[in-house]
Amino acid sequence: MAIKTASSWHSERIGQSATLVRWGHYGTPVLLFPTAGGDADEVERMGMIGTLWPLIDAGRIKVYSVDSIAGRALAAEWGSVEHRCWLLNGFEAFVAHEVVPAIRADCASDSIEIVAAGASIGAFKAVAVTCRYPWLFRAAIGMSGSYDLENLLGFRGNQDFYLSSPLLFAENLGGEILACLQRRFILLAFGQGRWESPAEAWRLAGILSRKGVPNRVDAWGPQYDHDWATWHEMLPRYLNELA
Fold first, then answer.
1. Which of 28, 120, 124, 232 could bridge 35 with an S-S bond, Cβ 3.0-4.6 Å?
2. Which residues of 139-156 are buried (b: 16+ CB within 10 A; e: fewer)?
3. Beta-strand relationship, 4-11 and 16-23
4. 79-84 — which CB contacts under 8 Å span 24+ positions?
């Protein structure tokens, strides 16, 4: 098994401590976001690290994962809706200003670009951080993404929610951020089995296309549910393309 390391620290941006875990030695850094309530070790417990082992062992990728602080707050309904929106926004800033520098330090490069990936709520975060900080991430892989959180929150907006949601802020991107994002790539994949919501991916893809952002939508068959078995098939294939 690949070398595994873990580090934890307290962040004022999210008002609590979080853990970052790494598997691997060399290769393209991949920041893999957990599902809604998952911690940094979820991807290992659910077999994803084992599935990615051939790419890790070959030195093509190093996989990182960080506690899903904002996703956990959504799933457990921590505090007020406003607090959860604050965490959504703060978590993305935490990733950009604390997690990415930690990954770059581990890779001994202050300019290396990262591939963001995730499933379900993890797909939301992977796409969101790539669209907000495209100078840090060169691609995003969103699998079975839950991109429309308004129904989950029962809430139609404040500034924190707007800033954290690519379905909202991507429509208004411009200037240097958009120019940089137009040199990136967003991959949106979903199954057509149980518990999937393909319409959300198509809606997001439409926004990205109107803004000139390279993207691709992959629809897998009806035998692919919103579940880890699906993502185990998807992610190695996509990382083999992008790493």
1. 120
2. bbbbbbbbbbbeeebeee
3. antiparallel
4. 81/153, 81/154, 81/155, 82/158, 82/160, 84/153
Q: Specify whether the CB–CB gap between 178 and 211 falls below 8 A.
A: yes
Cα within 13 Å of Cα(74), Cβ side: 29
Question: Where in the chain are the domains?
Answer: 4-242
Per the CB < 8 A criterion, the answer to whether 128 and 166 are in contact is: yes
Q: Say what the pTM is.
A: 0.96
Helix intervals (H) in the chain = 42-45, 48-51, 53-57, 69-76, 81-94, 100-106, 121-132, 150-153, 159-164, 166-169, 175-181, 198-210, 228-242
Q: What is the DSSP letter of 228?
A: H
- What does the DSSP assignment read for 27-61? SEEEEEE--TT--TTHHHHTTHHHHTHHHHHTTSE
Could you read off the pLDDT of 6-33 as tens digits, one per residue? Answer: 999 999 999 999 999 999 999 999 999 9
- β-sheet with 4-11: strand ranges across: 4-11, 16-23, 61-66, 28-33, 114-119, 137-143, 185-190, 215-219
- Asked whether 68 and 35 are in contact (CB, 8 A), the reply is yes
Question: What tokens does 203 get?
Answer: 């809606």
DSSP state, residue 170: G
Evaluate whether 110 touches 100 at the Cβ level (below 8 Å): no
Query: What is the CATH number that goes with domain 4-242?
Result: 3.40.50.1820
